[in-house]
Amino acid sequence: LILTLILTLILILILILTLILTLTLILILILILTLILTLILTLILTLILTLILTLILTLILILILILTLILTLILTLALILTLILTLILTLILTLILILILILTLILTLIL
């Protein structure tokens, strides 16, 4: 009887130890899985953030390009308009000079 009691106590101790070992193994596995999941999640989040930042930067660059195109168009239109205005003004001034010359010729002929 004493031997069976001792043997049962030893068996109960072995069972308790195996339970503790299995629980610690399960906890270690859970920790490893959470570490892997956090690594994967951080990688995915950094990839998503870099993609969003690159998209925003490309949109800003496209806006800058569009603005420079609009400014160059405005500047070319202004240059064309100034050229046309200078041509018109030179034509008017030459016509005035021609009229003055004709008037002076007429006045000299009369005098």
What does it look like?
- It is rod-shaped and about 160 Å long.
- It has 111 residues and is an all-alpha fold.
- The protein has one helix at 2-110.
- The chain is built from one helix and no strands.
- Helices cover 98% and strands 0% of the residues.
**In angstroms, what separates the terminal alpha carbons?**
162 Å
* Low-pLDDT sequence parts: none
Tell me the Rg in angstroms: 48 Å
Summarize model confidence as the mean pLDDT. Answer: 96
Q: Count of helical segments?
A: 1
Helices and strands, in order, run as H
- Portion in helices: over 70%
Strand share of the residues?
under 5%
Record field, number of beta strands: 0
| Main beta sheet | none
The best one-word shape is rod-shaped
**Class computed from helices, strands and strand pairing:** mainly alpha
Concise summary:
With 111 residues, the chain is an all-alpha fold.
What descriptive keywords fit this protein?
111 residues; mainly alpha
Annotate the secondary structure layout.
Elements: H1 2-110
